């Protein structure tokens, strides 16, 4: 919690200090983006953007205005941050800030023609609800208040016979329960897929993904501590199974039976979804992982007694970007799962450990759900 408070203070300081220094971005017709930053006292300004592997230096004109224009970029939503004399700074004139416990950045979109699924368009839209409840399992949450976000599809009918299938969609380390909607635009992606008939109308549940909030507040080095990783995963699994799922099934018209239930996630959420899903095939017939944080995992230890025939999954789907640092452990997991008899749907696409990859993953994963074998 202390790290989160420090981050909030840093964001406020960034906006206050630079409020009088105009900074803007301009998306050009060819898809390139021009960034400007006005700070006459700065000696070095760079731009970090998740479209590029390295920071991009800005140049200063005679008036002290720093600027740079990227190469033409594919249509996407990009996160960016200015680095001023070694210190990260938000763009104070861009209110679109990504929610995160550890880092911060602004969003900028290069639009697509026709619009990409994550763009706002004039189609029927679902509803997004934010729920807060008292947890008896998750550690170190302020006042023990846990949270989850629920998407219901356009035309959702609380009394529809048979209910709706449900996807539990888990975020990554450093994000919170709003990550998949605020940054991933999962709601708009589902709206688009449902409107085009590519995906079944479904409920999507996006919980806060920690069993112990100190797991994210302790810094990235926590991933080197196997005991901490295991504890976080165990507590989170318990909270999902005994608190979140029962609450969702009480509050929403969820279809009964494993064939109507799916679980998937990215990075830390991929580790959680693969572990929970494969340990509970009686609850989930569809299991997916995106850039899953599987490094150093002992699969037989954490998913014991796994057998494909007994699990009888409709889909085991594993995706990762080819330039992601987690590509090797994901390939190892796929090989291991195949030794257990699974027919793994494997997806490798160009891309790193970023939302550019995960939005695309969701757009390809959701249409596969809740179809007949």
TrEMBL record:
Q: Which UniProt keywords apply?
A: Signal
> What is the annotated signal peptide range for this record?
1-19
Please give the InterPro entries that the UniProt record associates with this protein. AB_hydrolase_fold, Esterase-like, Ig-like_fold, Ig_E-set, Mycobacterial_A85_antigen
Query: So which domain of life are we looking at?
Result: Bacteria
What's a single GO MF annotation on this record? acyltransferase activity, transferring groups other than amino-acyl groups
Q: What is this protein called?
A: Esterase
